[in-house]
Amino acid sequence: MATRILVAEDMETNQMILQDILGDTYIVDMAVNGEEAYEMLLHGQKPALILSDVVMPKMNGYELLARIKANPTLKNIPVIFITDTDGEDKGLAAGAIDFITKPFSPDIIKLRIANQIELSKYRESLENLVTEKAWELAATKEIFLETMATMIEYRSLEAGEHIRRTKDLTGILVNALLSHPKYNLKLVKANPTTISQASALHDVGKIGIPDHILLKPGRLTPEEFKVIETHAIIGSEMIATMITDKQDDYLQHCYDIARYHHERWDGKGYPDGLAGEEIPISARIVALVDVYDALVSKRCYKDGLAHEVALDIIKKEAGTHFDADIVGVLIMVEDQVRSVYSS
Question: N or C: which end of the chain has fewer CB within 10 A?
């Protein structure tokens, strides 16, 4: 299929010349000014390259280029200016990739257009490769962390089921909270799709807890409980060593959840004694999920409670242990919560 080029040129004679030069090699779309060219870019097929006059009525070449560079879907389309006036430095500074002066030399126009289209294809290919590799690295990182978390669960005799349920329950609550007027904008800004994945790392710090405490079938002594509490710090510090990009929402959620999922709404939790909305939203969600699953699940030291009993306990802790609004959402979606345990 032939490559498409958009030409913005107000002079009919020049339009005919450019069509004659380029028509055998490219599909040439013609616009008589910058305004028409921009409309064609918005509503027509995207060209591989734009050839634009500088001096045009309604919208000149510089204005057209500024509009293109400001539009995320258009900004990477290469623009070559054609003009009979000076100003090459200004055009290149504005973002044009090349500058052709009138009168036209057919061979020069063809060569420069072909070179720029090839360069554009190469840049796009390279960008796609970088993006693909970034996704591969992110996926590998996530698999590694989840595998490590699953190893912790096997060590805790949970066989990974606690991680699966935590992720499922967190996903249910996040989706429900996206419709909550108090939390929808906060969650959207926090990249909610990564929160349920990050919840898998909430107890990763238990890798540093001795077996005789972690697997103790009876009640822990105050001293032993203090040791257990350190898993929040151990886990968050492990994750902190992996954070090299502050824009990495996934690892930031991993850190927040690992460190703060035992904080309480009333400030009486650990390890930092945060209270209320000082606690990151992701950690508040997982704090509730973690306790609910602990209540209804059978462990080596206890039997599981019925859903209704667990929910009553949680309701009584709303506004003290848990964010009351999140508890309210949990109650609203309790049928979905039950389904996690029947699958």
Answer: N
